[in-house]
Amino acid sequence: MAREAFTAAGDRASAARVVNLIGVANAMAGDFEGAETNFEEALRTFEEVGDHRGVADQLLNLGNIMEEPEQMISYYRQSLQAAMEINDRSKIAHAFNNIGVTLEENGNLAGALETHETALAYWTDLGETRNVATVLFNIGQVLHKQESLDPARTKYEESLQMSREAGDSSNVAEVLSHLGGLYMDQGDLDGAKVTLDEALALYRDLEERAEEARVLRSLGDLLDRRGDEAGAQRLYEQAAAIEREIEGTN
Questions:
Q1: Are 231 and 240 contacting, i.e. CB atoms less than 8 angstroms apart?
Q2: The pLDDT of residue 28 is above 70
Q3: Whose CA, among 63, 113, 191, 229, lies 20 to 30 Å from 83?
Q4: Domain total for the chain?
């Protein structure tokens, strides 16, 4: 195996990267205990050989698989510190972004906004277009939750434009789905319909069934607001059928 070959050759850092890949595979398969074991092993090796980038990566990975927000943020802050020690600006931005997402998901919107704006400054300086688009979307979500609808709309639209330019169909669909919800919040039901229809078509092309169901429910909400209860119910039933299908395959 590659891991043993690298170890035998004395290349411990490369062996640790193999262990990291095994951990990533564990996490993708839902084996978070196995992922944690492998990430921690890789982390110890990277620390021992002085590979600060490897350390920063493993700490991010460990944060990503934790269940408790406090644990997640602790690992992300440790990753941030490791990245700062070597001035790896991309990893610094990733750590700030992950902290911001965790803060947002746990209701600290002011902290999330400040943290995302820091990540945005780093990624803008680095010219990382896709990551800039992602963090603009994240900022839009926070502003939307704060009911700052016009600023949120601006951030969503900036993210959408950059995602289109980058050819990132998945991010385009995600932004459109949230932008459609914002249009509804602003009372622009026609704009919401056009936007959500585009998001639905993209998710179907991408075969992202869970997201397709989510957008169908949003379109159902739109029809309900227009007084078309029967049409709304049909869309809710379509969404529920997809959700049952997904549940049956898990």
A1: no
A2: yes
A3: 113
A4: 1
